[in-house]
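== Folding the chain ==

***
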Amino acid sequence: MIPTFTTQLNDVVRYVYNETSKKENAIIEESLARDVNLLDFYLDSLNIKAEMENIKMIPSEQSVSKILAYSRKTSPVL
């Protein structure tokens, strides 16, 4: 396969999420050392990953109320 910049970006994302082999890691790390644009993408990806890990999804009170009301209406009577 001919390496393209898109392929390299995909490999960097896999690298960020520890989804690459030791052999791939060596190739990616060498590419990061040689290509400033790829290094910038890697650093941006690390920052985005860290920010995403801080996201907390909290449903609104209205959503919770609707779910509980629906549950009360549809729960079987024992």
